[in-house]
Amino acid sequence: MLTVNIIGSGNVAEQLAIAFQKTDKVNASHIYSTNQSTGKALAKNVNAQFVEKIDELPTQLTILCVPDDKISGILNEIPDNFPVVYTSGSVDLNQLPKRKDLGVFYPLQTFSKGRKINLFEVPIFIESNNDYFSSTIFDLAWSISRKVEYADSEKRKKLHLCAVFINNFSNHIIYIAEELSKKFNIDFEHFSPLLHETIAKLSVYTAFDAQTGPARRNDKKTIKEHLKMLEDDNYKSIYKTLTESILKTYHHDKL
User: Fold this and answer.
1) Total count of domains within the chain
2) Is this structure's pTM higher than 0.90?
3) SS3 label, residue 150
4) Model confidence pLDDT, tens digit, residues 115-153
5) I need a labelling partner for 52 at 20 to 30 A (CA). Which of 1, 41, 180, 188 fits?
6) Mind listing the pLDDT tens digit for each residue in 55-77?
7) Mind spelling out the 3-state secondary structure of the chain?
8) Does 116 share its domain with 173?
């Protein structure tokens, strides 16, 4: 069994700790977090020991589940004989402080508090500064997923960019629709079947073939009516940008 430390107690740390607990391959024995409240709660949930200082962690593989801008600083606090992996999709391995064993353990998924994720089908992309440590990271990833691939920092940045479009931007668009439905006094639950079908049909069609709507039809009359209805300049700008992109994609045209 591989025994690990986890630094962090946010969404990623929680999902990984719980996933490791369910396997007989990995034991998350110690947890450190600057947020003692969530750190202690997570440690209790997965039968781990919470420590209040990094130097109280045992010398073993340590997983950094912290914001991107905190990775470099925390690495400098961890002794060099600790093998360390971090979970970021966008931080370049070669731009971090040099150490003996350093790698990446990047699960390509969105994590939210309280949501249980089956990591077995989630792709995990790994990278390391040496071949021996790569095999250790692979075993760690393989213990909770059957989709493990090597990806260098450049490829991982590209994966992260695509993920931002797929998840973060689409979620923001749905947020705008929620705000508009409130403004128009429409029950947002009416859109639930539409949301489900939007995702479901992508298992059958490419996104290019699945596109529908006024811009896909080059229906500029409807587009102009929609723009008149949007009083918020930010929403209007987003509508115009996305509409022009669809028009150029299908009709080599613009508003």
Assistant:
1) 2
2) yes
3) strand
4) 889 999 999 999 999 999 999 999 999 999 999 999 999
5) 1
6) 999 999 999 999 999 999 999 99
7) CEEEEEECCCHHHHHHHHHHHCCCCEEEEEEECCCHHHHHHHHHHCCCEEECCHHHCCCCEEEECCCHHHHHHHHCCCCCCCCEEECCCCCCHHHCCCCCCEEEEEECCCCCCCCCCCHHHCCEEEEECCHHHHHHHHHHHHCCCCCEEECCHHHHHHHHHHHHHHHHHHHHHHHHHHHHHHHCCCCHHHHHHHHHHHHHHHHCCCHHHHCCCHHHHCCHHHHHHHHHHCCCHHHHHHHHHHHHHHHHHHHCCCC
8) no
13 and 137 housed in the same domain: yes
CATH number, position 213: 1.10.1040.20
Containing structural domain, residue 57:
2-151
- DSSP, res 57: S
Q: Which of 170, 188, 192 minimizes the C-alpha distance to 180?
A: 188
CA 66 – CA 7 distance, rounded (Å): 7
178 and 105 share a domain?
Answer: no
Domain termination residue (choose one: 85, 118, 151): 151
Instruction: State which of 151, 181, 206 marks the end of a domain.
Output: 151
Please tell me the distance from the alpha carbon of residue 21 to that of residue 38, in angstroms, as a whole number: 17
- What is the reported pLDDT for 58? 98
